[in-house]
């Protein structure tokens, strides 16, 4: 349910699918899944308690994530029609990077995963069991966002969205900026 809930991750996957096509959307999903998978691994191995206990590291990650959201919002709000790539050959690297960063710079994912995994982790679980649980979280996350990207790609919905890409980018940028401001207020 965490992967399905709308938030900055879904917005970035949608934006990259609109601007870069199916490949960029899928690469964004893969990057996000790997970023989430790293947090899942940290959570199940018990390292999350160290990160959560060290407020400075947690705050650094949280503020880095906020700054990344502001940077994305800034770029989206100032998008011009000419900024949209006409050929999508090299956009998969950008998509992967943005997907990874939006997940990895969100320490709330770690807190969420720790809360969820606390229901399943016990002293008797093996390291292999922990690895399977962490991998499953990454696979579920990646699968959801790949599904979203491939569902939109090649459809008339995506073509209509591409025609309005500048407006959509600006709206998404405003939403990301609002999310960043709310995170600043909550922080």
Number of domains: 1
Q: Describe the biggest sheet?
A: none
Query: How many helices does DSSP assign?
Result: 8
Question: Runs with pLDDT <50, length 5+?
Answer: 82-90
Q: Note the overall shape.
A: globular
Radius of gyration (Å): 17 Å
**Proportion of beta-strand residues:** under 5%
Helix share bin: over 70%
Specify the structural class. mainly alpha
Count the E strands. 0
Mean pLDDT equals 81
Write the topology of this structure:
Elements: H1 8-44, H2 48-53, H3 55-77, H4 91-104, H5 107-117, H6 127-152, H7 156-163, H8 165-186
Structural account:
With 187 residues, the protein is mainly α. It has one domain. Helices cover 79% and strands 0% of the residues. It contains 8 helices and no strands. Helix 1 runs antiparallel to helix 6 and helix 3 packs antiparallel against helix 8. The longest helix has 37 residues. The protein is globular, with a radius of gyration of 17 Å.
